[in-house]
Amino acid sequence: MVQLALVINRTSGRFVRGDDKALAEPLTRHSAVADVWEFGEEDMEARITSAREKGYDGIAIAGGDGTIQSVACMAHRNGAECPLLPLPLGTANMLAHRLYGHRSAESLLDAADTASPHPFRPGLIEDEIFLVAAALGFPSTVARARELVRDADGMPPLPSLSRRVTAAARHAFRPRIRYRLEDANDEQKRASGIYIDLDGDEDDMAYIAVNWRHIGDVAWAGFTLLTDIHDGERPGVHGRTAHIEARSRKPLPVMLDGEPVFMPRQITIERSNQPIHFLNWPE
Question: Domain ends where: 47, 80, 114?
Fold first, then answer.
């Protein structure tokens, strides 16, 4: 029988919104779970790093996308060999749905003994990784405004909300990002926002760079999406690439797997050469 360690974060995702005890018990008592680690314990990183040596076949993660991202970062930073099993117990469950479709947490644990480790090269922006997608520019400023509304107890402070909405609009219609693709001889282009997705070939990334200049470009973007008409820079340049260099005059607003952060004014985006291993099943 497979022996898993279960990292559980009772302060995230569905645990907060529901009965955390009723939700956690079927997971912590599952026959595949040999040990339970509470997320946030001081020695968490050391446990993840040495899990393979301790005899665990995998590390299941019960929490939201932020918890999965944090555990994956620890594994990547230390070259941990023990494969991860993200369980869909968050709000969006981006990685779990991409890896396993809409399977439930318990069904994934039930089938863990037939899974095998599969390498995955995460996206890398400077020293930070992402597992599904990243966005630069206006998508991140919109997310910061959304976070303020979501986290507020009632109506958020209007001055703060106004500043963030204004920043989002400014980034959307003023192309503040200059970027270049993998070929150093490529022409440098400008964009209001860049979206990068890791789906597909593990040697490259899908991307779209949007250059909106006025509100009419937003309508054109919707029309293009519905009709599959592409017209140069309207609404965006898209394709696949192994490398993107981006820079701005100010710190870059970036969104990593849905989490907004600020990064240096000049960054490089590519796939990491150091894989993380996830438990998965043959198609």
Answer: 114
